[in-house]
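Hi Y.,

Following your request, here is the sequence exactly as I used it, all 712 residues.
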Amino acid sequence: MHHTRTRASALPRRFLRRPPNLAVALAIQLIGVIDAHGAGQPTLQEVVVHSSTSQDLLGVADTASEGTVTAAQLARRPLLRPAEALETVPGMIVTQHSGDGKANQYFLRGFNLDHGSDFATSVMGMPINMRTHAHGQGYMDLNFLIPELIQGIAYRKGPYAAEDGDFATTGSARIDYKRKLPHTFVDLSLGQHNYQRLLVAGSTHLDNDLNILAAGEFMGYDGPWSQPENLSKRNGVLRISRGTAQEGFALTAMSYSADWTATEHVPERAITAGEIGRYGSLYPNDGGHTRRSSLSGEWATRDQYSATRAQLYYVDYQLNLFSSPSGYMNGLGGDQHEQADDRHLQGGELRHTRYFGPEWLDSELSVGLQVRQDHIASVGLYQTENRARTSTVRADRVREDSTAFYLETRQQWLPWLRSTAALRRDEISARVTPLGGDYNGENGGKVSAGQTSPKLGLVFGPFQLLGQTEFYANWGHGFHSNDARGATTRINPNDGSATTPVPLIVKAKGSEIGMRAAPLPGWNTSLSLWQMDLASELVFVGDEGITEPKGASRRHGLEWANYLTPAPGVIVDADLALSHARFKTPTADGDRVPNAIPLTASLGATYDPGGPWSGGLRLRYLGSYALDESGDHRSHPFLTSNLKLAYRYDKRTQFSLDILNLFNRHANDIEYWGSACTRQESSSGTCGSGIDGRLVHPLEPRTVRVGVRMYF
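Below is the corresponding structure, written out as tokens. Let me know if you'd prefer a different format.
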């Protein structure tokens, strides 16, 4: 990816859209209109290779660790799952420990982000992280993404940007969709394990400079699992726009739903003992159903002296997730439970930037306001057998509101010195109303919290050193919110014992120094040293309905990212990330932060000179990480490889071949250390209160997928 972020006249870039509960069929029917409106003979998308000076490549950035990813960089990237588009963020790892309808597991900067607790992501201005979620705080489900529609990903590391609030401790990513496509196309892919995917997409230009984009996606997949996944995914997008993200508007409607059967992580001993196969499941019929419909809009305008951007969104969301992570610890009936979440959220942002001339040091002053409301009709935890509810552990109704106001200013003090200073104020309030559960009636109530977050950045350069070089120093405060139920719970909903509420806001403080350089034409490199203090690792455990205390932590690390274009049509990116994570106060077992990956590395290359052949190869390495506080139990390091090849048969037809896990590496997508029981252990009476051991979810074996794309 391109590790620079060029501010278009320092103009903020944002996107608005609007999503309702559109049927995918509507999007597909529109393709006919789009095609009829299209002009001329279809041709392949033009491949443009830009030549630039070192200064052009260096661009403008506020930190050494921020960057952008373009659609061209994603086009030839082999992906197993849609959320792997985020692996374009240097150091980010995306895995899965359950079925493909569930949010992925994310890792970055020594954080086990779980399903998104400390990394904030938005899609066309809509926040994806869910507060007070049934499965986990900050739940970030990106399975609705259609990678072919992504226009770009703007990412930042650390809590240094004024726009970034809740969950943006390790960083943030802003994903924008395209406003138009060169041509209508139909893409059909088939592969092993009953993989099927159909994507129909196109756009047309109307009078009054309006563009309409529509897309429909259908996907099915069983996976290599002994219990077929039966994944069924339906996805639709309709977007009306005019102009650009800097000057124009866009309205976007999206609708997504998925059903699946999951194979959860299992005790490794069950595989080695032969009780189940490598891709076997302990419990039948885990999995779930989810849906997400949204309506959003964005508007932006600018002139010589100012820029204004406004966004609004509405999201309707539901999840019913059935899991049995502990197997048969509670008997032969199994430990399956359901986590249910039914909500809608709405909000928006207004930002205004004023530009001052040279007599005012080319200063910029930005003022922003962000609001969000989560109306959670029901968020609950239920004991189930074969997806039938047998009892209620806890159920609640929650309303959570937040408001944020920020000021940000930039000054060019000297030709080689500029600064960014910001102040952000967040206020969050919640009301939790118990709806059910034997011991949940005394919980609930109102809770509120606020935080003022100062942020400061300095940029020195550019200097004519290593071609052209800039140096950066950044410092700032951030936070992630805790589950509102954890902040209002006084009685353990499992057994009625007393428990202590946790803070609604957890403070984070980060600092970073770094450099970016363009040593040679076609080579952009960045190096950053960072540190992060988190006031508490408190986590609301959705599997139990309680909060688990983990204590304060400190992390530091180094990241080195490189982006090279050694020849026309060739892009190479190489990233290395090192991190060190420890609890400030050791527990009785030790001070290691479980599942904090200390070393990741990736190497990727794409080739597309505009001829008939193109492709991409990606290598990813995960180092061994501690599974518990002692560090005595560690994961196994591994290297994976993915390959994508494409052949343009003619102007209308393109064939593709994806080989995922190219060398059929036997490894685990994720490893934990915890208690569980197999069916045999439970029936033989050797289970007790659970047996500690390694819990694993195997990496999928080598998988081949072929595709054909037809342009119209």
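DSSP finds five helices and 35 strands in the chain.

Thanks again,
Q.
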